[in-house]
Amino acid sequence: MSTINGLPAHVLLVHAVVILVPLTAGLLILCAVWPAARTRLIWLAVVLTVLVTVLTPITVDAGEWFQRQLGMPPLLDEHARLGKQMPYFVAPLLVPAALLAFVQLRSRRERPVGKALVVVIAVIALAAGGAATWQTFRAGDSGAHAVWNGVVNH
Questions:
Q1: For the CA atoms of 88, 8, 47, 87, what is the dihedral angle to 10 degrees?
Q2: Tens of pLDDT along 127-150?
Q3: Which of 43, 3, 7, 8 is nearest to 27 (CA)?
Q4: Domains held by the chain: number
Q5: Is the pTM of this model over 0.85?
Q6: Rounded to an integer, what distance in angstroms lies between the CA atom of residue 28 and that of residue 5?
Q7: pLDDT of 28-77, one tens digit each?
Q8: Closest CA to 25 of 139, 122, 137, 125
Q9: Cβ neighbours of residue 78 under 8 Å, at least 6 residues apart?
Q10: Where are the alpha helices (DSSP H) in the chain?
Q11: CA geometry: angle 79, 93, 9, nearest 5 deg
């Protein structure tokens, strides 16, 4: 994907990733630690997890295309490096999403899983969500600095 309505696709898609990754991570953590939230929000969290897992590499590809169009300025090197790592931080969100969906399905059948398993899932959700959110911040911050320094210095 290169452009959307004449604008570089990365510039538009990156905003969705920056919003959806922390939102998804937060929802997964909430569903892991609060059973009432899990009952109401787990399927939304699962859909968002799949969406962000698909959208992130598309955004990275669009960013690589955009960087080539800009002539590979060194100012973007750190942003590109961190952005290319994003799929490896987002994909692990699928693990707690799948496990929490399993927990929810089991609880509907009146065969709930043990509290110890839910605690383990909560730890996984917290680790995966925290890592994905932190990497999103790092990549976004480096991109913002690159844009700001490029605009200010030109």
A1: 0
A2: 999 999 999 999 999 999 988 887
A3: 43
A4: 1
A5: yes
A6: 33
A7: 999 999 999 999 999 999 999 999 999 999 999 999 999 888 887 888 89
A8: 125
A9: 142, 146
A10: 9-33, 35-69, 77-90, 94-108, 115-152
A11: 40
d(CA 84, CA 129): 18
Residue 44 to residues 13, 17, 23, 109, 127, Cα–Cα distance (Å): 20, 16, 11, 20, 20
**Domain of 143?**
3-152
* β-pair type (7-8, 3-4): antiparallel
For residue 62, which phi and psi values (nearest 5 degrees)? -65, -35
Percent of the chain at pLDDT exceeding 90? 75
What burial class does residue 6 get, using C-beta atoms within 10 Å of its C-beta: 0-12 exposed, 13-18 middle, 19+ buried? Answer: exposed
CB atoms within 10 A of CB 14: 24
